Structure formats: structure tokens, C-alpha cells
Amino acid sequence: MLEGMTMLVNGCTSGIGAAAFRLAALRGAKVIGTGRRREKGEALAREYDARFVSLDLTDDDALEAFFADLACEGTYLDGAVNNAAITQDAMPLDRMEPAVFDRLIAVNLRATFRCLQFEMAVMRKRGGSIVNVGSIAGKRGFKGLAGYTASKHAVIGLTRAAALDGAEDNIRVNAVLPGTTRTEMFEKQMQTRPGGEAATVAGIPLGRTAAPDEIAETVIWLLDEAAGFVTGEALTVDGGRTVA
């Protein structure tokens, strides 16, 4: 499916990013992963005969150096997944510390923007596919999650604009919007979300959370040439939650 392609997965050390890393490797891609948790990333890379680079995507100098190294070694990216993100404790907007909001924007939005800049510059030569992992919080409001929701709304807008900017060079840019997925981020959110896990799952028509692999399958499809006429889309994978 991705045989012979080189894929970059940012934020690969857990959850959806780790699932996308594994699936891309199993489908025949040469995979490069980045993340801040070196031990987990290196273990994942060893398991799948892949490559991991410890990287803080909010560090402009480190990010520029990473892509410069790829260029120096002649590595061309056929696809990229921008998955790195953080969440927040649920709290009313008027009680949120500005620093919390700023950090959410830095990781969830600005880092995605910077990654897109470097990835698209590489892909101008012969095209490629980029997938930004957003959230259904980009389509609706969530009580107590103003900063997270704002950042994920912005990711959808960024995706659509990037798709238009890349189209003439056959660069496809799409977003996947997961619903409630059983990841470390989900576990953290449930600690402060009103009603906790029970209330959250009660709002999902399929009556359960998603497994990371279920979201990753959509990511992999968008990376593949099978989705060659799909760009600028924000595909929702949420068990029916946003239409209920």
C-alpha cells in the first residue's frame, strides 16, 4: 500500500501517532518518527526497523536542523503525519491561565504550521500527501476546553489553506478528526471532564471509544495514492458523535 515510500510521523510515541507509525511500516513504508519521549520512540523504531529522532516541534532551531539533515542525506518525503498535540484540564474559559492557552496554541497549531512549511517545501519537487491529526473539537464546542477547541478549529482552517497552496505541485493536505479515542490524552481529559468517561461514551452512537488503530487506518488511506483525488478535507472518525 505504501511500498517504497518514505513517511514522516510527528508525535509518534503514543496513541494515534504510534498506531500510524506501526501501520505505515507494516504497509511497506520507510518510516521516520519524531517525538519528545526518546525511550518509547527508539523502542518503536527498533521493533519496526525504522528511524526515530527525538525532537521538540516547538523548537524552531531544532526543527529547521532536522529538516536540513534530511535534505543533506537526500531523503525525500512522500508523506507526513502531523500528530503531535497536547490537551488541557477542563475549566471555564474565564479561569484559564493565558499561559495554558499559549502552550496549546504553540503545540497544537504553531508546530503544525511550521511542520507544514518544511514538509511542503520538500514535496514541491514531486508531490506528496500530508495528514494533520485534528479532533472533532475542531467542529464543535466542548464545555471547559476553550483553548484545546480553539487550537483544533484552527488546524482545520490551516489544512484547507495548505491544500490550496500545495495543489499545483500535487501536494495533498487533509485532516483527520478523531472522536473519543482511547489514548493517554483521553485518559488525562477524563480526569476533569464533566461526567467523566461514562458521560462521554453515552454521547457516542456506536456506544464505545475508538482504538488508535481505527483512526490510523484513515490516516494511512489518506497518505496512499488510493486517496489521490482527496485534498482539503477534514474527515471525521467519531462513531457518529457529531451527527447525533
Topology (elements, then pairings):
Blueprint: E1 6-10, H1 15-26, E2 30-35, H2 38-47, E3 51-54, H3 60-72, E4 79-82, H4 98-123, E5 128-133, H5 146-166, E6 171-178, H6 184-190, H7 196-202, H8 212-223, E7 234-237
Parallel strand pairs: 1-2, 1-4, 2-3, 4-5, 5-6, 6-7
Helix pairs in contact: 1-8, 3-4, 4-5
Description of the molecule:
The chain has 244 residues and is α/β, with parallel strands linked by helices. The chain has one domain (6-238): 3-Layer(aba) Sandwich (Rossmann fold). It has eight helices and seven strands, in the order βαβαβαβαβαβαααβ. It has a seven-stranded parallel sheet with strand order 3-2-1-4-5-6-7, sandwiched between helices. Helix 5 links the parallel strand 5 and strand 6. Helix 4 packs parallel to helix 5 (146-166). The longest helix is centred in the middle third of the chain and has 26 residues, at 98-123. The protein is globular and about 50 Å long.
Q: Would you summarize the structure shown here?
A:
The protein is an alpha/beta fold. 44% of the residues lie in helices and 15% in strands. The chain has helices at residues 15-26, 38-47, 60-72, 98-123, 146-166, 184-190, 196-202, 212-223, and strands spanning 6-10, 30-35, 51-54, 79-82, 128-133, 171-178, 234-237.
